[in-house]
Amino acid sequence: MRQLLQLALLFVLMLVLGVSANAQWECLYATWDNEVNGTGRQVMSVGVIKENMFVALVTYRAQNSFLIPYVDADSGLGRKYYYGYSSAVSGIYQVWTDGGFDQVPMNNAFMVKAMPDSLIYVANNDPDHNVLVFKYTSDTITVVDPFPRQQTGATSLFGIDVDNNGYVYVCTDTTTGVTSDLKVYKPISQWTPAGHVDAPITSINLPDGVYKGIAVTANGNAIFISDYENRKVIKYVGSPSTGYTLAPGFNWTIGPADTLSGTPPKRLGPIGLAHLASKNILAVAVDSLFKPSGGINYTTGRIYLLNGNTGAPISTDSSMHMIDQAAWSYAVTGSYTERGTGDVPGNVSAYASTTDVKWDEKGYLYSQSYYGWTVEKWRYIGTLPSFTTAVEEIGGTLPARYSLSQNYPNPFNPTTTIEFSLPQSGFVSLRVFDLLGQEIATLVNEEKAAGSYRATFDASNLPSGTYFYALKTAGYSSAKKMAILK
C-alpha cells in the first residue's frame, strides 16, 4: 500500500510539473564561464560544424565581436582561442582580411552560421554590412582563397543562414522603409572576387517590422523568419531561382505561457531559428533581446520545437515541444543565477538569455546564454516525431504521360496521399492552395527524374474546408480539389 501511495504521489507531481517519464530534454553540458574554457564575454550566437565542434560568437552590445572555436567540446574542454576575460576583451575584435590591405573588423555581429565543411558565415555590421566568410582549419579561424565577403548595403543585418547548395540568406534587422529585407546570394564560389558587391539573385520585401533570425530548409525551398515585433514566426516558400511567396498555412505565435515580467517588463519574442531537415522540425529561441538594465531577471528563456509544415508544436506534451532553460537552471541549482557546486556546473548555464539555437548532424541541439557567457548542448531522451513531407518513388514501368491522381483518402484528417507521374525528367512543383488561391504548402519544388511518385500531405494545423493541389512542370499542369474534415 505504501508503495502504491508513493507511486500515486509521484504521478501527481509529474502532472503538476508537466514532466513526462518518456519525454524529456536534458542539458548534456554547458561550457564553463571561467578562464579555462570560457568565451570571455557575452555569447550572442553559436555556429555548429558537427557534434561538439562549434564556434561561439561573442558580441558585447554595440561593440566589437570575435569568434571562439571549440573542438571535442565539453563543459571544461575544447576551447582553442583565448582573448581574455570580461573587461580585458572590451576592445578586442576579429578582423576579416585577404592578407593585404582589404580588412573588415567584426562589429556588432549578431548571428553566425557554420557549415560541415568548416566554413563560417558572419552577418557583420560594418558600414557596408558585409557577409564575412571564414574557415576553421588547423586550429585557426582564417580567411581562405578566394577571400569571400559580400557587401549587402546600408541596412543593419541580423539573421543569416546557408542552404546545402551554398546559397546565402541574410535578413535586415528593422524593415521599416526597406524593400529588400531578406536577400539571397549565390554560393561563395560564384561571388566576384573584386569589389564584393554582387547583387542578390532574389529578395523578399517583408512587412514593416523588427525581424531577427532566419532558417532555411536544406534545399532552400522554405525560409522561416522570426518576427520579434509581433512575436511570431512566418514562412516563405519557393526557391532562390524563382523567388518566394508567403505560406499562410504556417502559423505560430508566442502563447500565454511566455508572459512579460520584471520591472521594467521584459519584451519576449522569437529570435534565433534552426531547421532540422531530417525531421522537418523548427527550433525557435524565445527570450527578451538585451534585457532592460535595472530590471534584469532570468526566469524566462525557452526553445520551442515546431512542425515545419504547419507551425504547430511537435507534441501536446510540453516536455517534448519546449526546452525551458530557466526552469532547468532552477531545478538543478535552486536558483536562476547559480551554477551550483561540485560537478553541477557542467550542465547549467544559469542567467537564461537565449538568442540562438542550432542543430548538429546527429540531432543534438545547441543554444547559448548571452548573460551566462556559455554554449549549451541539449539531448532529447526518446525519439522525436518526424514531419517530413514524404515523397517516394513508386516502382514500375516508366509512365507514358503526365498525370495527377485524386488524393486518398478524401476527405481526410490529418494526412492524405497524392500520386503523380512524370514521363521525363524536369523541375516539378506540387503545391496546396486554399479557396482564395493562397499557397498553403509546398510538397515538391525541385528537379525530379522521370517516374511515378507518392507524396504525403500533413494538414494537422489547417481547419476543415476545401483546398486545391496543383502539379506544374515545364510541359504540364493540373489541379484537383480535396477536403479536410475534422
If you had to describe this structure to a student in words, what would you say it looks like?
This protein has 486 residues and is mainly β. It folds into 2 domains: 22-381, Neuraminidase (6 Propeller), CATH 2.120.10.30; 391-484, Sandwich (Immunoglobulin-like). The chain contains 3 helices and 35 strands. The strands form 9 sheets. Strands 7, 8, 9, 10 and 11 form a 5-stranded antiparallel sheet that branches. Strands 16, 17, 18, 19 and 20 form a 5-stranded antiparallel sheet that branches. A hairpin with a 4-residue loop joins strand 21 and strand 22 (281-288). The model is unreliable at 1-22 (pLDDT under 50).
Summarize model confidence as the mean pLDDT: 88
The CATH class of the largest domain is: Mainly Beta
Gyration radius (Cα, Å) is 23 Å
Give me the oligomer status.
Answer: single chain
Which key phrases capture this entry?
35 strands; Immunoglobulin-like; Neuraminidase; 2 domains; mainly beta; 486 residues; globular; 5-stranded antiparallel beta sheet; disordered N terminus
Structure summary:
The chain has helices spanning 2-17, 318-321, 325-333, and strands at 24-30, 43-50, 53-59, 65-70, 95-97, 103-105, 112-114, 119-123, 130-137, 140-142, 149-151, 157-162, 168-172, 182-185, 202-204, 211-216, 222-227, 232-239, 243-246, 252-253, 268-276, 281-288, 302-307, 322-324, 357-359, 365-369, 374-381, 391-394, 403-404, 415-422, 426-433, 439-448, 451-458, 465-472, 477-484.
